[in-house]
Design goal:
single chain; 308 residues; alpha/beta; six-stranded parallel sheet; three-stranded antiparallel sheet; 19% strand; globular
Amino acid sequence: MQDASVGIIGTGWVGTSVAISTLHASAARRLLLHDQRESVAEGEAMDLSHGSSFYPRAEVAHASIEELQGTGVLVVAAGRGGAADETRLQLLQSNARIIAELGHRFSEYQGIVVIVTNPVDVLTRVFHEASGLPAERVIGTGTTLDTARLRDTLGRELGVDPRSVHAQVIGEHGDSEVCVWSGAAVGGRPIRSWPGWTAAREDRIALEVREAAYRIIERKGATNHAIGLVTADLIRGMLRDERRVLTVSRVQNGPFGIDGVALSLPTVVGMTGADEVVEPELDDDELARLQRSAEVLASAFASVGPNV
């Protein structure tokens, strides 16, 4: 890892939310913004700089692609956002070419790349293959947001702080994602032993988590604040080498028999990237659904064709 500098490509809804969350989290000493609309990136940098009295000291500026090459973390938030009636995988053809081009341009990059653009799992693999960078240094935000949504929902259901809920979503950041109910717990007590807990309750909550983005997009046109917070938290943890276990996406190399597909599993994340996957204990149904999720993502990547 180089220094505590962060570059963001794409200053739309998501990129700007990542930027302001990164500043408030004190995750970067230097924040560089880039967009193909140069004036927009420059304007966002100016606007954020004017608020410097209200976040920990950091330099904010717009930058060229070449200037981003020396950053410690590169966040890719470029591309088109999804519509309310559109799945993340339907975005693939629109965004794969953009991400592949960026991958080629950052083939010599020495820091860690964080992919936020959807469909994040397939595009993580696209960037990895186009750049040739090691899998542990090309990370998708994956199901970190879904996991946060699950914990928030369970916190409200059970009347506890979401930070006291230990539950994870793995697999695709999308319709084939898997809530790991068999390992979910609060205060060491399994969720499934909670008074009044039922399988129907699991199904309802899983659906709410899975469809959360669609419901937000229907109302405001995009999701941006929560993913901004999630990404800033990930950046801070990497630059501080906290080695936290997070459900990030990366190209997998063997866990659960999954090889060459990018999807989310609990992974130790630090200053060298996502370098140690922790295989959770899954019941038979969860394992089958995870493997199905891998198949969905492999098929989606195959459909990209010459874009990579």
